[in-house]
Write a structure and sequence with these properties.
Layout lengths: L10 H8 L3 H4 L15 H19 L4 H23 L8 H5 L7 H10 L7 H19 L2 H4 L3 H13 L5 H17 L2 H22 L7 H17 L9 H25 L5 H18 L3 H5 L2
Length: 301
């Protein structure tokens, strides 16, 4: 991994690029545009395997102190590459996308998905640390968590982690639940509201697919996460912590998100799966409590 790094001869130029005002002020193009990925599929797979191996080594007690500094540096490195390709003065959109070469920063997210969905759940610890580092690095470069969450990198991360919930194995589903918990707790509220429906469907699928099977806590975690997410997203917006001109927009996003979530929960009330049915009813009661209405009012079209 270290040998594959392309060392920038001029450190000052790199710092100058990452300090550019466009990272903090210019519009970040998110959604719809294709992600840059290395065209050499075999090289990318080998690279992903090496990054995954690094995370595995970080989880081994005897190797941890030797591996952690390298892991932290490399996670930040990949994040900076992805950010430089997606924002700043030279975002990879249109013609620029075809001119890029070398490894893409998204290989880090693919390796993260591999270890979060691994049977050995100890691997989730370095995975969780890596997600903290990704968000922390992105926030430092873009100036705020709200701008960091607009990066296509974060959408890719959310998609990969939600996809784990639809895997067949219980341990992949459990990894998906752990990742979703991190996302709705640590990401910007607007970003979470816009993806709350996707998170809800992923968590409900975990419950539906694993009911009556060995789940080693995946079903309980999905249920716990669902209630925590609803309480986090449906609570009244604290206008003191949000800029005045953004309050109305945030409230509108929250209303739309809750409408979509409520619609799905009402649909699940008639689910053939008793566990999902009971959980949907419980969630509607939670929404009624948070919005100070009756369950009937919440369910009304």
């Amino acid at each position: 991994l270290v040998c594959s790094l392309q060392h920038e001869p001029d450190r000052q130029q790199t710092i100058k690029l990452l300090s550019h005002t466009s990272f903090r002020e210019a519009k970040i193009v998110s959604g719809g545009s294709p992600h840059y990925q290395c065209q050499d599929i075999q090289a990318r797979q080998v690279h992903q395997m090496a990054v995954t191996g690094m995370f595995v080594a970080a989880a081994i007690k005897e190797l941890r102190t030797a591996v952690l500094p390298t892991m932290v540096a490399l996670v930040r490195h990949y994040t900076m590459i992805a950010i430089a390709q997606q924002a700043g003065p030279f975002p990879a959109v249109g013609q620029r996308l075809s001119r890029l070469s070398g490894m893409d920063g998204l290989v880090l997210v693919d390796a993260l998905a591999s270890i979060m969905g691994h049977e050995e759940k100890e691997l989730c610890k370095p995975g969780h640390l890596a997600m903290v580092l990704v968000l922390d690095t992105a926030t430092t470069i873009t100036g705020s968590r709200e701008r960091a969450c607009r990066l296509p990198l974060m959408d890719y991360l959310a998609d990969k982690m939600c996809a784990l919930c639809y895997e067949r194995a219980w341990y992949a589903k459990l990894g998906g639940c752990i990742a979703i918990k991190f996302l709705f707790e640590r990401m910007d509220l607007r970003w979470v509201l816009e993806r709350q429906f996707n998170f809800l469907k992923a968590l409900l699928f975990v419950m539906m697919d694993l009911t009556g099977e060995v789940s080693s806590g995946a079903v309980d975690m999905a249920r716990s996460n669902l209630e925590k997410m609803l309480r986090h997203c449906a609570a009244p917006i604290d206008s003191t912590s949000v800029e005045e001109n953004q309050v109305a927009d945030l409230v509108s996003t929250q209303e739309k998100s809750i409408y979509d979530v409520t619609h799905e929960l009402v649909r699940q009330v008639t689910s053939p799966n008793k566990y999902v049915r009971d959980q949907a009813i419980h969630c509607l009661k939670v929404l009624a409590e948070l919005t100070d209405r009756t369950v009937t009012d919440v369910m009304a079209p």
